[in-house]
Amino acid sequence: MNSTQRLRLGKCMTMFGMLMVSITPCRGQDNDSKVADSSKVVFEESFRDPLAENWQWLRPQHARWCLRNGGLEIRVWAGFADSVENALLYQVTGRGQDRWSYEVTVENLSQPKQQWEQAGLTWYSDGRPVFKLVKELVDGKIIVMPGNKPVPDDAVQLKLEVEGPQIRAYYRTEFNGPYLLAGEGQLPQSDNEQVSIQCYHGPTDAEHWIRFTDFRVLRQEK
User: In this structure, is the dihedral angle defined by the CA atoms of residues 47, 68, 17 and 85, taken in order, positive or negative?
Assistant: First the structure.
C-alpha cells in the first residue's frame, strides 16, 4: 500500500527516548491463563476516531499515522529511543500493589529490512522510557526483546505485566496458546507512569508501516 492510499484513510500522528532498567531474560515459557481468567478488563481501545481521552501523543507527525479498520497504523521512522516519533502514551493511574496487564497486537505490514527496526510497548517513568517489549529485526532475524526470542514475521501479541516494582514481558504468536515469558525487571519508583505504543529505527528510503490492534488494560486485585 503506497503513501497516497494510506493518507486517504484517515488522520496520521508520533513519540520519545529510553533509559533501560535491568532486565533478566527468561528461558522457557509461562502459562498465565489463571491470571487472565481472574483479571478484569478495565480499558479497551477500539482505535476508532477519536481515540479515548486516556491517550496523549509524543512527538506527533500527523502524516505518518492513521486509524483504519479498528487499528492504529504508524509508519516506522528513523530514530532512537530518545527521539522516537508518533508514540502513543497511555496514562497509568492508581496502580497500587495490584497486578496490571497491558496488551497489544503488533503486525508488520511490510517486511522489516532495517537493523533494529522495531515495534511494541514501552514503559515510561517520569517521562523517561525505562523498559521495552518489542518485535525487532536484529542481524536479519525477527526476535522479541527482551530475551532474544525468535518469532516468525507474523502478528504477535505482547503483554507487560506490572505488580509493585516488578515488570514482566510476555509474548505469543499462537493467540489461543499460552503467553511466553521473555524477561523481567524492576521499575524505579515514580508518581508519573505511562505505557506507550511505538515503533522506530525504520528505513528512510522505504515506507514501512506497523499495525497495532487489541490494546487492553487488565487488573487482578489482591
Answer: negative
